[in-house]
Design a protein that fits this description.
heterodimer, A: 220 residues, mainly alpha, 0% strand, B: mainly alpha, 9 helices, 79% helix
């Protein structure tokens, strides 16, 4: 099976079922416009917690649609096709994760500087913020992939999925936010950057294999 | 040749009846050991050990808190081994052990969190501090709850066992983070003082009650684990019998 074909299919499906990148961006815009209403229009306060808001937005947007990520394919037999195709399931799931990240993580990372301006973030932290999201959000998607594979047989797995996925995402969140904080205060942020890379790479190694195992074990 | 004719203990335990026999033998001595270790340990902790020169009497919370923290990690490690037993060796008792262990581990983690919080109030002046190690123990607690929730969500035991096994192994990634989080994000919590390079830094008079209490906790864990495993086996048997009975009633 061609990886490009799967990727293309995923992106088209996301777009036509209302989960495309542009809707993701609207979601972020709404999230950050809700924040001042909840906190009051204090620029300094908002600026201080802006990295946290954007990272929580990343977590939320990763969670959205995660319960359908594999379930729809399981229902209409695509997963069986995957298994019969002879291509390693690990690689196919990695492509699915990539597609999910392209419509959730990447748009947020790219729009982060703009959203950062609206949230009065320190100018020095603007690019590090985008960088942290660019490196960190793949880890979130990959963790979510495992959760989606584990709950694939459950009709209403959404809540359980978040309970499984969020604790595992916490290290990513910590390193990501620390990176932005260090940058905002003008300190070098190599250490959190390296740790964030480490988390993402480790998840890249572990998560597709875990998800593939979960899908296989769920059907015998 | 001897080994060929007589399967190893590990293999024989795959039979629930063999497990039950072993459990009957082990349970009595373990209960005695639990009571003895807790009795002696609590005596040492509350009467026969000195108060700390800085922390005063509150240091005694440590004898409840620290073994619970050790056990919370130990139980998770045991569950990871069971997970391998389920996925790799397909040992029939492995998932029984894992299902039985999860709530006990969650209980130890909760004891660790609550006693830590009670200790934190006089020491740090706050019930809860978002410091690295507290937070990681909280994550461990959430992982336990997630595992228990997944067990409950998937109806078929064999399928649930495999899903939980994978979740447990993915969660194992979290264990080293907990242990070394102190070095990474050290804020308020004490740096590790028992297991560290260059030997323990706490005085032997405090170390003795700590280890006796740890032994008590370990024995208690084994007692609870065996009882819960036996219960789980009985539950599965009841379920099978009910299905058979329902089949029998069908015209």
């Amino acid at each position: 099976m061609s990886f490009a074909a799967i990727l293309r299919r995923e992106l088209i499906l996301a777009r036509r079922t209302g989960a495309g990148a542009e809707l993701g961006l609207v979601f972020f815009l709404i999230l950050i416009s809700v924040v001042p209403f909840a906190l009051g229009p204090d620029q300094r306060l908002i600026g201080r917690i802006a990295p946290a808001i954007l990272w929580i937005a990343a977590l939320l947007s990763t969670l959205l649609g995660l319960d359908r990520l594999l379930q729809a394919d399981e229902d209409d037999g695509i997963v069986d096709h995957f298994l019969l195709s002879g291509t390693p399931l690990v690689a196919l799931l990695a492509v699915k994760a990539l597609a999910h990240w392209l419509v959730t993580g990447l748009p947020l990372a790219l729009a982060a500087p703009l959203l950062g301006v609206m949230l009065a973030i320190e100018p020095a932290a603007m690019l590090p913020l985008a960088l942290s999201l660019l490196i960190g959000t793949p880890a979130l998607t990959l963790i979510g992939l495992v959760g989606a594979a584990l709950t694939v047989s459950l009709r209403r797995g959404g809540l359980l999925l978040s309970i499984l996925v969020l604790p595992l995402s916490i290290p990513t969140l910590i390193f990501g936010v620390t990176l932005v904080k260090e940058a905002a205060e003008g300190r070098p942020f190599t250490t959190p950057l390296m740790l964030l890379c480490a988390v993402s790479l480790m998840m890249l190694a572990v998560a597709p294999a875990g998800a593939a195992a979960a899908l296989k074990f769920a059907r015998n | 040749m001897e080994q060929m004719s007589r399967p190893s203990l590990w293999l024989r335990l795959a039979n629930p009846a063999a497990f039950n026999t072993l459990a009957r033998w082990l349970l009595g001595p373990l209960v005695v050991l639990t009571i003895a270790a807790f009795g002696y340990g609590l005596y040492l902790a509350f009467a026969a050990s000195p108060a700390d020169y800085q922390q005063g009497e509150t240091v005694r919370i440590m004898y409840i808190h620290v073994p619970a923290a050790w056990l919370s990690l130990f139980v998770y490690a045991g569950m990871a081994v069971s997970a391998l037993g389920t996925l790799v060796f397909r040992h029939p008792m492995a998932d029984v052990a894992q299902k039985a262990a999860a709530p006990i581990g969650a209980g130890f983690t909760l004891i660790c969190l609550v006693t830590g919080s009670i200790w934190g109030k006089p020491m740090w002046g706050t019930w809860w501090e978002w410091d690295a190690r507290l937070t990681s123990v909280l994550i461990l607690f959430l992982l336990y709850l997630g595992i228990i929730a997944l067990w409950r969500a998937i109806e078929e035991p064999a399928r649930a066992a495999r899903a939980v096994a994978i979740l447990t192994l993915v969660g194992v990634v979290n264990l080293p983070i907990i242990k070394f989080s102190v070095d990474w994000w050290y804020t308020l919590h004490q740096p590790a003082s028992v297991f560290r390079m260059g030997g323990p830094t706490i005085h032997p008079t405090m170390l003795a009650p700590l280890f006796v209490m740890a032994l008590g906790y370990l024995a208690l864990y084994l007692v609870l684990l065996i009882v819960r495993m036996k219960t789980e086996l009985l539950e599965r048997r009841i379920e099978r019998l009910q299905i058979l009975a329902a089949d029998g009633e069908r015209p």
